[in-house]
Amino acid sequence: PASQEIKEIATGFSARRLVTAAENNTNSTKVYGAASVGENFIFSYDYQSDIFEKIDAPAASSALVLSNDIIYFTKESGELYEYDINEQEVRKIGNGLSKGFSWAGVSDENSLIHFGGGTTPWIFIYDPNEEWNPGTNIENNPVMIDKPIEDTVRIRALTIGPDNTVYAGTAWNAYFFDYKLTKLKQEIKVAP
Predict the structure, then answer these.
(1) Burial class (CB in 10 A: 0-12, 13-18, 19+), 64
(2) Which contacts qualify for 126-132: CB closer than 8 Å, 24 or more apart?
(3) Residues with Cβ < 8 Å from 87, sequence gap 6 or more?
(4) What Cα–Cα distance (Å) separates residue 47 from each residue in 11, 29, 40, 44, 86?
(5) Residue pLDDT tens, the chain, 192 long
(6) Beta strands 113-117 and 102-107, pairing class
(7) Is 189 helix (H, G, I), strand (E, B) or coil?
(8) Among 96, 16, 97, which Cα is nearest to 63's?
(9) What distance in Å separates the CA atoms of residue 100 and residue 27, rounded to the nearest whole number?
């Protein structure tokens, strides 16, 4: 028969989002997460040394996106932050997103950061190599796409497929759709 070992690592909070640094760095033995209940925080757990640590970062219980050893996360106040795994440093990237909580996030093969969320659904796409200039035009960074599909709520899942296509799923009303950044103007309504 199969055997299993379940090990309690930490208690007293809700681990809402998880990423593993091994996704980018095969030598890493850490798992990172966003937690809530009482306080919101980011944590790391090194499964080789069995060390659990809270990371001194602004409250975040949003989706986490890992790209090139940087973890990106948002705050409900519309701010985007990054945590550099190697430097162990948190930096505020910018604000002005004004759409709040991100439920899902993913990095594509061009290292663009995609977040989705909201009660009224939204997507934003951020290029870490470009200047911060948020807005709803394709030239903005990040570009905010409000209501990519009408009559939907909360984008809860994002993943990358072939040819850098992003697949998205919504909660409760079960919409499933895809998009590419190069096709946004043609296939997804960009709010004026």
Answers:
(1) buried
(2) 126/72, 126/80, 126/93, 128/67, 128/68, 128/70, 128/82, 132/93, 132/94
(3) none
(4) 16, 6, 22, 9, 17
(5) 566 777 777 666 666 666 666 565 556 788 888 876 666 778 888 888 888 888 877 766 578 888 888 989 887 777 889 999 889 899 999 887 766 677 888 888 888 998 888 777 778 889 999 999 988 888 889 988 877 777 767 778 888 888 788 888 777 766 777 666 654 443 443 333
(6) antiparallel
(7) coil
(8) 16
(9) 34
Distance CA 8, CA 126 (A): 36
What are the backbone dihedrals phi and psi of residue 181, each rounded to the nearest 5 degrees, phi first? Answer: -60, -35
Q: Per residue in 159-182, pLDDT tens?
A: 888 878 888 877 776 677 766 665
Q: Which tokens is 147 given?
A: 């209501």
Token reading at 85: 């795994």
> Whole-angstrom Cα distance, residue 79 to residue 57?
13
Residue type, 54: K
